[in-house]
């Protein structure tokens, strides 16, 4: 099977790999149909995020069950499924204390990062990581389940009230999915992005009663004209850091979900004195079934969020659409695409 393999920064290639085999009786062989290209993939390719050399990339995926181990009772060949790629052992200290997204085995089990992923034709996983798809949900739409699940995990860490005034920095796929995760709890707010093109797309697909703004200052002025402070700021860009703390109302939340190196500073007295909360969140924890339900019920406009789709062979074009020029070795924010999906054959 053809697989998109990571070698080192800016060095990726399509390679022939053997089809993986079922080796345990609770495993399932899935024929991959579609995998979303994630910011993590761009980070790995551009050398900003570590991955194991010669790993197959890709982790936001859906496909068809081809074969099942002898102990698998809830799935059969032909079933259409979405894959929860966040493996956890269930037995380590992190798993036994409700932090399965930080399973201590992650350094060798993270799909598409430290373990082979799904930018290829076949993938083997355990039955507990597969969720059946209804006929009306396309494989492409289903690829949004994993990122949406991560957003739901993020907001589960917040004591959220429906009247929280919220600003999301970055109107890319993460920002838009965050707006839907928050909208599902009754929260409204603004998506902020410096790209007019991206804002135009975001404006047409944002949840009801959500606004878009081209600057943080405009968003603050519009949402909180009297106080200049909002209850929650979600930074998906990774570049804002703690410089927005003064725009948080007392008791407010700064949620950091942009995976980027950097340094930031804040005044601990301000955080204490105004009961501010600075929260980070990575991967998904106990929310995959809810994300699966939200996609199935068409609570998020998955078809509109996926703006581009390419065959796996055209991965370079797919990455370029997202601002990642592999040949030219440059990574910029994309303005024309929200979510891009690679289709396996
Ligand atoms: Zn991802
Ligand atoms: Zn574990």
UniProtKB/TrEMBL annotation:
Gene3D superfamilies per the UniProt record, alphabetical: Medium-chain alcohol dehydrogenases, catalytic domain, NAD(P)-binding Rossmann-like Domain
Q: Which residues form the Alcohol dehydrogenase-like N-terminal domain?
A: 25-135
> Is Metal-binding among the key words of this record?
yes
Q: Where are the transmembrane segments?
A: none
- List UniProt keywords, sorted A-Z: Metal-binding, Oxidoreductase, Zinc
> What cofactor(s) does the depicted protein rely on?
Zn(2+)
The question of whether rRNA-binding is a record keyword is answered with no
Tell me one Pfam family matched here.
ADH_N
In what residue span(s) does the Glucose dehydrogenase C-terminal domain sit?
144-322
Q: Which InterPro entries does this one have?
A: ADH-like_N, ADH_Zn_CS, Glu_dehyd_C, GroES-like_sf, NAD(P)-bd_dom_sf
Q: Which residues form a coiled coil?
A: none
Family affiliation: Belongs to the zinc-containing alcohol dehydrogenase family.
Q: What is this protein called?
A: Alcohol dehydrogenase
Species this protein is from: Paenibacillus silvae
Q: Which gene encodes it?
A: adh
């Amino acid at each position: 099977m053809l697989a998109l393999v990571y070698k080192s920064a800016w060095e990726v290639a399509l390679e022939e790999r053997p089809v993986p085999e079922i080796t345990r009786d609770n495993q399932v062989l899935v024929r991959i149909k579609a995998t979303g290209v994630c910011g993590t993939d761009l980070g790995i390719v551009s050398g900003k995020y570590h991955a194991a050399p010669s790993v197959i990339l890709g982790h936001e995926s859906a496909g068809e069950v081809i074969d099942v181990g002898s102990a698998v009772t809830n799935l059969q060949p032909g079933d259409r499924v979405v894959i929860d790629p966040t493996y956890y052992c269930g037995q380590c200290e992190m798993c036994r204390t409700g932090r399965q997204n930080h399973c201590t085995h992650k350094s060798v089990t993270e799909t598409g990062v430290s373990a082979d992923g799904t930018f290829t034709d076949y993938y083997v996983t355990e039955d507990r990581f597969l969720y059946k798809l209804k006929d009306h949900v396309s494989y492409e739409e289903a690829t949004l389940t994993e990122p949406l699940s991560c957003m739901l995990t993020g907001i589960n860490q917040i004591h959220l009230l429906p009247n929280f005034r919220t600003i999301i920095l970055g109107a890319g796929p993460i920002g838009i999915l965050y707006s839907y995760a928050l909208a599902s709890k009754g929260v409204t707010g603004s998506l902020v992005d410096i790209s007019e093109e991206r804002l135009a797309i975001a404006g047409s697909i944002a949840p009801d009663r959500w606004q878009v703004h081209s600057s943080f200052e405009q968003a603050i002025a519009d949402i909180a004209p009297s106080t200049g402070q909002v209850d929650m700021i979600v930074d998906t860009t990774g570049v804002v850091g703690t410089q927005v703390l003064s725009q948080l109302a007392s008791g407010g939340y700064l949620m950091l979900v942009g995976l980027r190196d950097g340094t930031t500073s804040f005044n601990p007295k301000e955080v204490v004195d105004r009961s501010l909360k600075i929260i980070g969140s990575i991967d998904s924890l106990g929310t995959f079934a809810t994300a699966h339900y939200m996609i199935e019920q068409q609570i998020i406009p998955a078809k509109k969020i996926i703006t581009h789709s390419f065959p796996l062979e055209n991965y370079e074009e797919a990455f370029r659409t997202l601002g990642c020029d592999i040949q030219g070795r440059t990574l910029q924010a994309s303005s024309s695409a929200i979510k891009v999906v690679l289709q396996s054959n």
